[in-house]
Design goal:
Rossmann fold, 44% helix, 6-stranded antiparallel beta sheet, 358 residues, 6-stranded mixed beta sheet
């Protein structure tokens, strides 16, 4: 899979600009705060329907404008696909090959991408929600049924939590079983998919980590489910056993919204004790493993976006990283190009104030 062209209009600091990407390495370079990361963000948005950094879509609209437009012409093993997003103050419109789609689920899978930035250290050093986000973004691009189950689970979870805040305990106890049945049905799909995903991820991440560290460190990854055993039945029992605690706390204490990943480097819990360098290398190993999973399940590699990664790696690991991503279409942002690293043909874009200087 690759992006042939990307068009931005009134997006962040871009007034109107287009990029023609090659099938290999594409380097966006320039000084800080010129718009390189904005371009990476646009690609991520077309892949997932969300921004990796904006809480509200309207934050991506250029100052003083009423709307923003992003469009990509991509090519997959099934042919060409045009993906467009028009973002307004209070709404958005998504189109696939000119046909409007109402649901984010219909956007997912048309353009698959793996995204890495310095913020991805949160995958290792952040809280469990960061590791769930990693699984959710990856699995949602691979499975519409997973994404649908996740959306419905979160909706029911919100309704159950609202019920737990009711003052009349008898009403709560009478109604909870109704929400529990729905919650368990959607949870089973989520937890099964996550377990299968981590089973694929663990050996691949360990292999990539060994490559990046020259075998000096070992990485072990496991799925830490809040509900062991058969997901639906075990969760139903757990929810029922926690009624008193949930009512007292006012929220649901069991379910896949509590899942986590176990990450150990050299046998030590990396979530608590990894250094900045160890966390960065482990997170990068996760992303390289994610690429392999996309290749296996989707039948073709994703687009890889590396945002400001080179400045955080030493020379040896930069070279190793580029060797690993050599077959992929890669969009890489950096402050300056380094000829010693780019020994193959490179498509370069110099970004200055939201414009491409050719």
């Amino acid at each position: 899979m690759r992006i042939k062209t990307l068009t931005l209009k009134n997006f962040r600091n871009y007034k109107e600009e287009s990029f023609s990407f090659s099938a290999g390495l594409n380097v966006l370079y320039g000084r800080n705060a010129q718009g390189k990361t904005n371009c990476a963000e646009a690609v991520y948005y077309l892949c997932t329907g969300t921004s990796p950094r904006a809480k509200k879509d309207r934050q991506m609209i250029r100052s003083g404008e009423e709307s923003a437009h992003i469009a990509a012409l991509a090519e997959s093993r099934f042919g060409e696909v045009c993906i467009e997003a028009d973002i307004y103050e209070t709404r958005r419109e998504l189109r696939i090959n000119g046909e409007r789609v109402a649901r984010n689920a219909d956007l997912l899978g048309n353009l698959r991408g793996v995204f890495f930035s310095p913020d991805e250290l949160r995958l290792v050093q952040g809280g469990p929600e960061e590791r769930r986000r990693f699984m959710n973004v990856s699995l949602s691009q691979l499975s519409k049924s997973y994404y649908t189950a996740l959306v419905r689970y979160n909706k029911v979870l919100g309704q159950r939590n609202a019920l737990l805040k009711e003052r009349d305990v008898s009403v709560i106890l009478e109604t909870l079983p109704v929400w529990d049945a729905q919650l368990c049905a959607f949870a089973a799909e989520i937890m099964r998919r996550r377990a299968e995903y981590v089973e694929k991820l663990a050996p691949l991440a360990a292999e990539k980590h060994a490559f990046l560290t020259d075998g000096a460190e070992t990485l072990a990854v496991g799925f830490e489910s809040a509900v062991p055993g058969d997901a639906a039945e075990a969760l139903a029992r757990e929810l029922a056993a926690n009624y008193d605690k949930d009512i007292r706390l006012g929220y649901t204490t069991a379910g896949p919204h509590r899942d986590d990943l176990k990450i150990h480097i050299n046998g030590t819990d990396a979530r608590a004790y990894a250094s900045q360098g160890q966390a960065r290398t482990a997170a990068l190993a996760f992303k390289l493993a994610e690429i392999e999973i996309f290749q296996e399940i989707a039948g073709e590699p994703p687009v890889l976006v590396l945002d400001d990664v080179m400045s955080e790696l030493d020379l040896a690991r930069r070279r190793k990283l580029l060797a690993q991503v050599n077959p992929l279409q890669t969009i890489l942002t950096c402050t300056h190009t380094e000829k010693v690293l780019f020994k193959r043909e490179v498509n370069k874009f110099r970004i200055v104030g939201g414009t491409v200087r050719r």
